[in-house]
Hints:
One of its GO terms (molecular function) is glutathione transferase activity. One of its GO terms (biological process) is glutathione metabolic process. This is Glutathione S-transferase family protein. Homodimer. Keywords: Transferase. The protein is built from eight helices and four strands, in the order βαβαββαααααα. With 230 residues, it is an alpha+beta fold. The protein folds into two domains: 78 residues, Glutaredoxin (3-Layer(aba) Sandwich); 121 residues, Up-down Bundle (Glutathione S-transferase Yfyf (Class Pi), Chain A, domain 2), CATH 1.20.1050. A four-stranded mixed beta sheet has the order 2-1-3-4, with helices on one face. Strand 3 and strand 4 form a beta hairpin. The relative contact order is 0.14.
Amino acid sequence: xxxxHSHPFCPQSxxxxxxxGEFGIESELVEEKPWERRVPFLEINPAGNxxxxxxxxxxxxxxxxxxxxxxxxxxxxxxxxRRFLPQGVVERVEVRRLLDWFLVKxxxxxxxxxxxxxxxxxxxxxxxGGGAPDMSAIRAARANVRxxxxxxxxxxxxxxxxxxxxxTYADLAAAAHLSVVDYxxxxxxxxxxxxxxxxxxxxxxxxxxxxxxxxxxxxxPSEQYENLDF
Length: 230
């Protein structure tokens, strides 16, 4: 069985979990607290970042984007026209562009700030950066999420899915990152109905169920987090 080293509220890890669910791959989830930098984990991924997939053969596949490419290489062809990374060159470029947008830009401007300040710091020792959240970072992330939500709405206004006519890695990456922000109640869904309806479609997929079951100890999710018709 494949092993996924991840954290329940790491947005990149959530993307990998959605991918495994969509491909129907059973995996053992090994929770990593990246701030602990466990030696056994660093031995398989010296960078110390999440997620890391170890497939049945023992191959170590580190990083959300690399995992996505690996799964497309090894499992994508059997999906034919339902492939999450389309076969056309132009279409693949657009998916990769948006994948970078959410795995890098959205992560750096929104989801990493909020996950770190509102979740990780609750469990990190003071000497490793734990403690009270930085409210300036939270305010910045809350401001930034509006820009990204409007961009999602703009794309969906002219397309069926973010990158075009079919569901792709772009949608799964965006939804994975938004799911963390949504848990915390920091997505202003009322400001963009188009983006909200797109997220509801993703949220209703079977692969999303395990994400919706996750809980931060001592912190309840937002009211709409589990509601598929929010």
